[in-house]
Amino acid sequence: MNSFTIKDLENLSGIKAHTLRIWEQRYHFLKPNRTYTNIRYYSNDDLKSILNIALLNKYGFKISHIDKMNSAEIKEKILSLNQGQAQQDRIVNELIQHMIDMDIDSFERALDNYILARGIEKTITQIIFPFMERIGILWMTNHINPAQEHLVTNIIRQKLIVGIEGVDTPLSCNKSILLFLPEGEHHEIGLLFMYFLLKNRGAKVIYLGANVPMHDVGYLVNFKKPDYLYTHLTTVGQNFNFDKFLQQMIKRFPNTPTVISGKLTTTYEKKIQPPILFKRSFAEAMEFVTGL
Length: 292
Fold this sequence. Notes:
Layout: H1 6-13, H2 17-26, E1 33-34, E2 40-41, H3 44-58, H4 63-66, H5 71-80, H6 84-101, H7 104-118, H8 120-140, H9 146-165, E3 176-182, H10 189-201, E4 204-212, H11 214-224, E5 228-232, H12 242-252, E6 258-261, H13 263-266, E7 276-279, H14 282-290
Parallel strand pairs: 3-4, 3-5, 5-6, 6-7
Antiparallel strand pairs: 1-2
């Protein structure tokens, strides 16, 4: 991916498109290109610049002052941020920049350094999940090269599996949850993250993985009798019909609550019928886990 829309910049930086347009008019650090139809588009360098500027602005630096800094001064100021949350935001920004540059060695090194300093659990909750939330919209809109996605997700998948295998918790909630992704959904990271959270809570997890035919889900439900079904929908194939999927889950598993999280739930506006439960945000998903 070599160009981004102003909406991409808004989603990745947290700065509203209206504000970005004002910054373009008043300052010098952001100069978008335009298509022949006069639509703004931004380069990789523009994205990296706005991520750094947004971070400094979030932690107290005035835009008028940032505009006078050169790139070395901006980098120095970012490294000087000592608040815990600021450091986490900085690392998430670095991961985005390494992904855009396809600098996979630096991407993995940043994760490994945080794991060494804070442990795998905090790396997952403080770095990996915020990173996934920030870039998820790019996957939904195909504003990211598939090669970038595969390289990054394979690294994260490895870290999550290490984290899952290493869970050692005294907690026990006496609940079983069957985790799966329906046919056409291959984005496994969100489901693996939920696996980690549930296992850390002491739940018994039955993990089917991605792209699972419904008859396989049905077989396991009949055999294992889980307390919940759980799926995380990021983006599915063109033939996937969300309404049909929901009705199928209600018909096949009327007595087993089906919990659904992920990007697709945030855009679904119809009434949700039991036993379907939507968890539209990380906070809501965490409430489900801690409430077991």
